[in-house]
Amino acid sequence: MNMKVFSEKVGLSSHTLRYYEKIGLLNQVQRNASGHRVYGKKEEVWVGFIKRLKETGMPLEEVLRYATLREAGGSTLLERQHLLEKHREGLMRHIEQQQAHLSVLEEKIDLYKSGKVA
Length: 118
Hints:
Blueprint: H1 3-10, H2 14-23, E1 30-31, E2 37-38, H3 41-55, H4 60-72, H5 77-114
């Protein structure tokens, strides 16, 4: 699929996709005879994973590090695993913190509902 269709499908602007290609997150994007980028399912799955990492708070630097390790092949499996485990730990701490914030908000809302707050 071309850049416009791919951009709409993955929910990223063409500018972002070109930037990801420039910094090495999207390597080896195929081009057709006229030089236009052609994206497939492989790129769609990869961009989906990049987005998920970003949406869970992984800095672009770390995503790029993961991508570099991925590109290096099977010898980096353990290092990639460790990187994802570290990210998971941070994400779990963040979720716990958000749960605590939510609990306090729920308590405050309950006070308002009970009419015990002036």
